[in-house]
Amino acid sequence: MSYARSEPDTEADDGPRVALKILVAGGFGVGKTTLVGAVSEIRPLRTEESLTGASVGVDDIEGVAAKRTTTVAMDFGRITLRDGVAIYLFGTPGQERFWFMWNELSRGALGAVVLADTRRLPASFASIDYFERRGTPFVIAVNCFDDAERYDPPEIRAALDVDPRVPIILCDARRQGSAKEVLVGLIEHALRSASHTRTGAPATR
């Protein structure tokens, strides 16, 4: 699904004037399903299945041993902002065995949110590498779990070794306001990146 502008025939048209597709990616158990559910104005579509003994030795559940379900295809939600802007959220599956879904889900996306957990930062590397290779604008959203040690964005940037232009945002994926701030931050970053690409100037934060 691409993001595109449509022109309503009348002012009474109540459909979105602009639709934006955003991916929510990251490692297994970092809070992707939670973030989509926190901001979606519709009941989120979830493709979760229970973890079973068959996943032992296949899925890395270190640090998330209490997790009982996993996304096997995608999460889907929608949020409408002011001025007729609708955001369609697609949460990607976190385990390596489902990564084949990413190419289809990323088609036409404005950008991506890469959720990170400071207790398991290496789980974010695959998502970061993927979007860097594709040239897709993305932000790092650090989900501040209650039992996780707190780090400042410069420390997290150094640990993840990401470009200085990539925004790093601390958030609580459970809270609607915090999750919305992440989405707004991504949209602003993506628009800046597109503007600088057109003008040929280096992007700045």
TrEMBL record:
Record has GTP-binding as a keyword: yes
UniProt keyword annotations, A-Z: GTP-binding, Hydrolase, Nucleotide-binding
Statement: the UniProt record of this protein carries the keyword Hydrolase: yes
SUPFAM superfamilies, A to Z: P-loop containing nucleoside triphosphate hydrolases
Domain of life: Bacteria
InterPro entries reported for this sequence: Gliding_Motility_GTPase (IPR052705), Gpn (IPR004130), P-loop_NTPase (IPR027417)
Family that this chain belongs to: Belongs to the GPN-loop GTPase family.
Protein name: ATP/GTP-binding protein
Source species: Actinomadura vinacea
Lineage: Bacteria, Bacillati, Actinomycetota, Actinomycetes, Streptosporangiales
